[in-house]
Amino acid sequence: MPGIDACLQEAMSLPGARGAAIVDWTSGLALGTAGESPGGDHEATAAETAELARAAAEYTAFAPTPGAAEGTAPGPASASAPGTGPASGKASGTADGTGSADQDKGPPVEDLIVTSRTGYHILSFVETAFDSSVFLYLWLDRDTGNLALARLRLGQLAERLVLG
Question: pLDDT tens, 124-142?
């Protein structure tokens, strides 16, 4: 289980990797960085990517569809009390106390991919035992990077990352 430095080193070993960071999306602070930064400033990049991550994690448009995990057809969003449900990170459950704990665990988004003319930007959310608001960020060169491989490996790194 890699720590921050080992995780960033492994991310930078991916083909086409130009820069990587571990970012807290609530504060916008980089917990660690490696390689280059798209704008030349790792802290500015961390703050900018944190805004994107925050929007994806908090907006209900990206929340899992109720019942989708059980294979049922998606339906209209069910009403829940403010501050509950997948977008808030708090369990909503059902009236009889049953509900999918797995569905409510972690951020509603697994990862984000932004493509630009010269590169790919991948944000992979990290699930932890505590109330985590951390993601891995990887900047790939568009000509030499492999987006599919990078997304898979970054997801694996996010699962193994040890914070503490």
Answer: 988 866 667 889 999 999 9
Q: Could you please report the per-residue DSSP string of 51-79?
A: HHHHHHHH-GGGSPPTTGGGTPPP-SPPP
What distance in Å separates the CA atoms of residue 153 and residue 44, rounded to the nearest whole number? 25
Q: Is 15 helix (H, G, I), strand (E, B) or coil?
A: coil
Backbone angles phi, psi at 139, to 5 degrees: -110, 120
> In sequence order, what are the beta bridge partners of 99?
none
Integer Cα distance of 33 and 154 in angstroms: 15
Cα–Cα distance measured from residue 136 to residue 20, given in angstroms and rounded to the nearest whole number: 7
pTM: 0.74
Burial class (CB in 10 A: 0-12, 13-18, 19+), 30: buried
